[in-house]
Amino acid sequence: MRSIVAASLLLLNASAFAQAQTAPFDMSGERPPGASVAPRLTPPTPPAAAAPVPVTPPVSVAPAPAPHATPAPASAPAPVAPPITVSPQALQPAATDTAPAQHPESVRRYVVPFSKLGLNGEYDRRSWSVYLTPEQAASQASFTFAYQNAIVVAPEASALTVYLNNRPIGQQRVGSPDGPSAVTFKVPPGLLQPGANVVSFEAAQRHRTDCSIQSTYELWSNIDPAGTYLSFAGSDAAEPASADAIRAIGVDGAGKTEFDIVVPALEQPGTTKPLLRLAQGLSVLSSMPNQIFAFSTASLPAGGAGRLSVLVGTASELRPLFPGLPPGAESAALAAFVTDPRSGSPVLLISGPSWQAVSSAIDTIVSPTDRSADSRRDVLTTERWSAPNAPLVFSDTNIALSQLGVKTTEFSGRRLRTSFNIAVPADFYANAYGEAKVLLDAAYTDNVLPGSHIDIYVNDNIASTVPITTTTGGILRHLPIRVTMRHFKPGLNTVAIEAILMTKDDAACAPGATAGASPRFALFDTSELHMPDFARVGQRPNLAAMAGTAYPYGRATEPTPLFIDRVDTDTLSAAATLLGQMAIMAGHPIPVETVASPNTIGDRDAIFIGSISQMPTTALSQTNIATASQASWRPVTDAQTGVVDTGTAFEEWNSKVSGGVLRSRMTAFREWLWRNFDISRSSLQFVPGAEQIFTPPNTASLLVAQGSSPAGAGSWTVVAAPSAKDLREGVEVLTSQLNWPQISGHITTYSSKTGKIEAVPVTRFDFVPSTPWSIANYRLIAANWLSTNILSYASLLVVFVLLIGVTTSKMLRNLGRSK
Q1: DSSP string, 95-110
Q2: What pLDDT, in 10s, does the model give residues 284-339?
Q3: 508 - beta bridge partners?
Q4: Is 491 exposed, middle or buried (0-12, 13-18, 19+ CB in 10 A)?
Q5: Which of 450, 440, 401 is nearest to 422 (CA)?
Q6: What would you measure as the largest C-alpha separation in the chain, in angstroms?
Q7: pTM for the structure as a whole
Q8: In whole angstroms, what is the distance from residue 612 CA to residue 559 CA?
Q9: Residue 629 buriedness (CB in 10 A; 0-12 / 13-18 / 19+)
């Protein structure tokens, strides 16, 4: 009998042990669409009153520890809250404002401020902040995200980790190649706070079978913005309380933010200035990356995630649209949140007995964002799409990477890439001679082979490469890596450090080698970026400075003249969207005053916005835009036939005529000189040439151009399109976070048909003094200018050599004994 019982117990233990093992890796073909792709994870904890499982960093990836995280002590492993997985069939498509089924009264806040979010390579980390109201921070919350990954990602060695306020709340094995899957983590109580909360996604990914460097570019996990959100229990989290509701407007399922401003007296004289001030104030308060403004005179639009309706007007103007107007609006200025009785959505109501009172109510909202133009900012506000904020560097500075959001990382893969943001002022002028330094603290093992290297990128352009030549490993302590500053631009700049690592094990690529359990490289957050003193002088024209810091309008002490051809919903919406984006870059609203004619502007800085046919010819001439384009610029439609693209036709004829092959070879030679020696046709001249007259092609639907005022003392910026509709749509696209940094040169065009943004570089510009006179600064300015115009430099060098020779000859004649 005892032998039978013992045998039974042995069989039960063996069965339990077999069920506890992870299923072997399946190398059979892809699973059919619709099949469940939820990874095998610990079952979710049932909802109970018990305290949540604590989560303490770092988090390790099963079965191998995450190569990018510092190992936790073996005696205290970091427990991770088990996720709730949903199969692809249960994942609802695109964004809706419907609350999750498990919480019928919950409030949903989308958190991804991008239209697309991809985590690429073997290691990637993205961080940004989400602003929460006190009611939302105090509510019970859960975090849901939907993702899909490349089929080549090995699930047993890859993981996605979600952090809130730098604390991991859960980890998910990457195993959803056939379709999107949703995962939900409980947010520990007390973790969220009123105000800014940092959300971080971290990906550690390995290839299934390949160990090459090239294979790391095939690894990706895409986070679906429409399926990524915070859920708050209870309806109190949706109630607007104060101006915090403006900061907490958030985004919709596509990463956009929209302010719908309803103004019954939109075309009434005197309303444009306060309305544009309101738009800029709302922009600075929210600081969202992809926000647009939509003006209308009709009824309130439907509310939704990432949208805020604003009613502006006198009490008599608003009463037909909003019968429940508070009685106080009849006697005094009023700015308050009310609830739309038809939809239940919050509405920002701005009213008063007169438009003067309405302007006062607008000031109560906008005035907290005002800042003196003379005060210097320490950071560029970027945390809503890239945390932390980018520090502004004005002179010789050392900044530790830990202050720029870079974490100490231990890495066992083949390609490590991490990036951070840095900002320089609008009068930055060191693109031809300046050099920054990355003082690198890193280490690598003796497994890393010669031929590996560390690359530094600036704005996705390679700036420096350091080869690894030793075979015994090494520790790098503040290794200076010179970084050319030719790719820096005014405003925000992204610097990336990429380590390309090769080992003998990768060449063999034995089974299981892609997991890479032991770290081979470490990057320490004690590394520093050293920015030297650089030349500081403003340049006119310079659209990159306008896009970077709203220069020169952000520094104006007087209201900037603004010419709008007509005050309709499309044109005013485009002007508000453009000025709102510029206000975010400037860090404060830009005071403007509307003008009816360029004759009243004089030589002040000014902005012109409208359709090309209504644009003053003086403004077009000053920005080198052909005045004939007022009649000829019409966008190409699908119905048009016989329209020939000039660029394509020129290339075809260039290959047909005699000498076309020779010219193409000369062009290739010039490109080789520019790529390897930074020598271009513009640099092989004594002085910069004159700007050419620009005729916008019919494929373009929007242009932004900048030039000098008639007397040369101010900057005039023209934003024009063939029609008001094209103007509004083009500005909405151009001001998005993805496209705004592409504005540069003295003319930038956008084509809605091709989606391309093209810039015409500056040929000749004027210097605009921006700092007190100093010999050191003028020396740096001269060094950069001569580095750009090398023939002038060579000529001056010859002249100085001749002067030295003549002077020396005269001195020698007067010395010694003469016969």
Answers
A1: --SPPPTT-TT-EEEE
A2: 999 999 999 999 998 888 888 999 999 999 999 999 888 888 888 888 999 998 88
A3: none
A4: buried
A5: 401
A6: 135
A7: 0.82
A8: 24
A9: buried
